[in-house]
Amino acid sequence: MDITLVYTVIGFCLAGYSVIGNDSIQTLGTFIASKQKWYPWYILAGTASLAMIVTVSYGWYAYNGDISYGRLTRIPAQTIQWYHAVAPAVLLLLTRIGIPVSTTFLVLSAFASTVVLEKMLIKSIVGYGVAAITAYFIWLGISKFINEKFDTITDPFQIKLWRNLKWLTSAWLWATWLMHDVANIAVYLPRSLSVVQLLMVLTFFTTLLFYIFYIHGGPIQKVVLDKTGTRYARSAVFIDSIYAMILFYFKELNDLPMSTTWVFVGLLCGRELAIATMNKDYHFSYVFPIIGKDFVKMIFGLLVSVAIVLAIHYIIIPNNWGLQ
């Protein structure tokens, strides 16, 4: 068997597991948190899988076999080498200990030039800022009317309404997220897939999703559960809607990949600060350790990504270790 095929399969499988297991919690985390007490895990997994199949298949059809929605235009296809599998392996390790690092930086850094990586970083920083500021001002208004701890919904009609809205917003967010982050897995594949290859990818993704729902999100789910009110359908609807709108805006802005993790953490940061501003019982001394911890983890992931890309471009490739 060709050794490059082995590297490709290993890299793809590791990237798929790491991306679905890590980044998907950004979109599915509130869905799991707010729905798991009402529906069996396999119903939720089946719903998420159906939305994934529709979204990925549409991208494959609309972009001539490219399931990344054009996110890899500036990263040409490459012959997969051993070092390309290092990034998802590191990501897998960080995922297992619950660190919400950026899969975009960690995975694509092994393929992207330093120039593209720099542009990805700038776009992600802007995304973090836009999400934080948007969430802060929106939740200043929302917090005047909603406090999930003291203003719980008891009306049966409203309960049903918010639960149904949660289904819709979760599907919308899940689709927009896939349009960004499938690129982190598709980078190991040909830029144009055949029907058979597409079916194999969809089967693999579906299997991963069912596993993630079976373990209720895994360790990384704690990032979502630590935040105020994320288990409530009403709050989850607002989080999903704002996050989806921001992701869709940046998708349409240009074809550069970006870190959806940074956008997600920025959104939760702005939301927590707004809640602390409006709620006298929710002190900033409690907020800053939570958002600070997430930010430190993001920076750690960025440093690892930069180390990987520098090592590849300035150490591994120039020395050509003879492992190709």
Task: Describe the protein.
It is a single chain. By secondary structure, this protein is mainly alpha-helical. It has one domain. It is 71% helix and 0% strand. It has helices at 3-22, 24-35, 41-62, 86-96, 103-108, 114-142, 156-181, 183-186, 195-214, 222-225, 233-253, 260-278, 284-319. Helix 11 (233-253) crosses helix 12. The mean pLDDT is 79.
Outline:
71% of the residues lie in helices and 0% in strands.
Number of domains: 1
Average pLDDT across residues? Answer: 79
Low-confidence stretches: none
Structural class: mainly alpha
Tell me the fraction of residues in β-strands, as a range.
Answer: under 5%
The sequence of SSEs as H and E is HHHHHHHHHHHHH
The proportion of residues forming helix, as a percent range, comes to: over 70%
Main sheet: strands, sense, barrel: none
Please state the overall shape, judged from the principal axes of the Cα atoms.
globular
Secondary structure tally, helices: 13
Ends distance: 14 Å
Count of individual beta strands:
0
